[in-house]
Amino acid sequence: MENRAQDADGEIWRVLAERCEWTGLDVLDLGCGDGFHLPRFAETARSVLGVEPHQPLVRRARQRVANLSSVEVMVGAAQRIPLPDACVDVVHARTAYFFGPGCEPGLAEADRVLRPGGVLAIVDLDGGSAPYGDWLRADLPKYDPAKIEQFFADEGFDSRDAVTTWRFEDRASLEAVLRIEFSAPVARKAIASVTGLSFPVGYRVRSRRKPSGLVHSDG
């Protein structure tokens, strides 16, 4: 229900497509959860691999893509990806790295499995964007959006805004999702502040391309 509501107008996918092309290429969805995004990549990618550490989610993801011959789901963690070096063209990680400092082992592993010229694309929630960012910071007072932005800039990422809409079919669904996203006190405040069936949520789409190699001059 939450996945269906998120990015109802496809803004994240639009920004992703601008930052990295995956048509005809090999894609790794890192932290793929129950595989919600795997079929979307499989529409045009040559192959799609989902890696997820939690067994129940792995089982659900495998069920979701059972009829897609180009998609596979494996158990693994971001800091220990069960793949050989230089085997994929795109690594996609959605809301997996938004705490910034501390994720260096995962970034290094993503670079390891990327082919030269490949792209690591990270979709982060924007902790500085209201109203969702306000709710997030209320639950995580040590969360510092400016520090996280600086971290990814120092790591060589280009970061772009993606302002999305979370849209729900009914009020009960909206309230249920907010209750699983936030602590009870923050969820109550969030629910009270939202009228209707939708609200904006800001993301940061971060991308970094792996160098293709040195160019040697014949001179």
UniProtKB/TrEMBL annotation:
<dbReference type="InterPro" id="IPR013216">
    <property type="entry name" value="Methyltransf_11"/>
</dbReference>
<dbReference type="GO" id="GO:0032259">
    <property type="term" value="P:methylation"/>
</dbReference>
<dbReference type="Pfam" id="PF08241">
    <property type="entry name" value="Methyltransf_11"/>
</dbReference>
<dbReference type="GO" id="GO:0008757">
    <property type="term" value="F:S-adenosylmethionine-dependent methyltransferase activity"/>
</dbReference>
<keyword id="KW-0808">Transferase</keyword>
<protein>
    <submittedName>
        <fullName>Methyltransferase domain-containing protein</fullName>
    </submittedName>
</protein>
<keyword id="KW-0489">Methyltransferase</keyword>
<dbReference type="InterPro" id="IPR029063">
    <property type="entry name" value="SAM-dependent_MTases_sf"/>
</dbReference>
<dbReference type="InterPro" id="IPR050508">
    <property type="entry name" value="Methyltransf_Superfamily"/>
</dbReference>
<feature type="domain" description="Methyltransferase type 11">
    <location>
        <begin position="28"/>
        <end position="122"/>
    </location>
</feature>
